[in-house]
């Protein structure tokens, strides 16, 4: 099968997201200028540089009370900071609950009963008990093609790692089984890993 996106795919559901898998989930926490903490999962998320460490996430939707974007990006525009929380399999239900659309003045932490902790380097909350959390300072927000498509880049200013996830000096993802986003409404859990040496090693 071949199709041009502008012509449509003719399938019951859009296959695009199912082709780019698995995708890490950036559970993005922000705090608005009004002090309200926001939390939402984004599957268009990844790291994009080592030195200095940098991450990106993309937001593609609109809320009527947020002037052409969503709460996360609106808050980042106001404060210039955000935190990326890593989603463990045990946090699946909480992560999903935080995706509910709420009015701008309401916090997903409160609505979903998710415990929070203060960040160390930025004025923002993070998910208490997350396997890892990356405190980020926004460097740029790039508008890309499409009505409400934006990519937010940030430099990592602080990193939290749960002590029980460190094994012999390495961060062991099998200790918490990270969630990954697939296509449609599907997810995956990473339960095993293997090492592969590069040809130049």
Automatic annotation (TrEMBL):
InterPro entries: Flavin_Rdtase-like_dom, Split_barrel_FMN-bd. GO terms for molecular function: FMN binding; oxidoreductase activity, acting on the CH-NH group of donors, NAD or NADP as acceptor. Pfam families: Flavin_Reduct. Residues 18-173 form the Flavin reductase like domain. PANTHER family: BLR2425 PROTEIN, FLAVIN REDUCTASE LIKE DOMAIN-CONTAINING PROTEIN. This is Flavin reductase family protein. It comes from Marimonas arenosa.
């Amino acid at each position: 099968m071949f199709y041009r996106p502008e012509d449509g795919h003719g399938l019951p559901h859009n296959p695009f997201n199912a082709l780019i898998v698995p995708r890490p989930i950036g559970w993005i926490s922000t705090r608005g200028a009004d002090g309200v903490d926001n939390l939402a999962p984004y599957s268009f998320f990844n790291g994009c540089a080592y030195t200095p460490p940098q991450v990106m996430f993309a937001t593609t939707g609109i809320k009527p009370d947020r002037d052409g974007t969503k709460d996360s990006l609106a808050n980042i525009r106001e404060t210039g900071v955000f935190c990326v929380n890593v989603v463990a399999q045990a946090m699946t239900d909480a992560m999903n609950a935080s995706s509910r659309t709420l009015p701008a003045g309401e916090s997903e932490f409160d609505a979903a009963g998710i415990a929070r902790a203060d960040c160390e380097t930025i004025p923002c909350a993070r998910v208490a008990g997350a396997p890892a959390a990356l405190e980020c300072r926004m460097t740029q927000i790039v508008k890309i093609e499409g009505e409400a498509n934006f990519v937010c880049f940030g430099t990592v200013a602080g990193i939290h790692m749960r002590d029980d996830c460190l094994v012999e000096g390495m961060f062991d993802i099998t200790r918490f089984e990270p969630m990954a986003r697939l296509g449609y409404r599907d997810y995956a859990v990473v339960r095993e890993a293997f090492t592969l040496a590069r040809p130049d090693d």
